[in-house]
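not sure who needs this but someone in the group chat was asking about Phosphopantetheine adenylyltransferase from Cryobacterium serini so here u go. i didnt clean anything up, its just raw.
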Amino acid sequence: MMRRIAVVPGSFDPVTLGHLDVIDRAAGLFDELHVLVVHNPDKSALLPISQRVSLLEQAITEAGLPTNIVVASWSMGLLVDYCMDVGASVLVKGIRSQVDVAYETPMAIVNRNLAAVETVFLLPDPANAHVSSSLVRQVAGLGGDVSPYVPRAVAQYLERSRV
Ligand code: PNS
């Protein structure tokens, strides 16, 4: 039988509890789930990609998420090229609000047109609806406590790297 393989792409700069919730839900729906750190040229990054991968791995282990999750990064071109490489036909995105729907819809249609890769939208726990990486970057940068919004490994890393 064909293995159902999906990809959760994102900047993960840094991974939040909202991301982890979506990753956990998606891992239950597919045989194999790739969590893919992708550089987004529209955003100025806080963390290097290798650090984002490391924090994702630590957070997934810490949270005891399923073992069918692979963390990787991609900087070689289109997201759908990665999907083709690993045999994934589905992308998974979390949708917190209508703003996310508006942001994600054009990308979903382009990815489908490029390579017949479908996008599945999951609704995260509403408790995390206000959580975003950009908010975490801002609060952490100004010296605030981000521990309610991020996995412990991320909170500790941000605390340690504070200057
Ligand atoms: O977490 P983000 O920043 O909202 O994630 C956006 C991301 C990285 C998934 C998006 O920018 C992306 O898919 N980039 C890969 C480049 C690509 O394939 N672009 C064309 C289709 S949208």
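also The chain has one domain: 5-161. if thats useful
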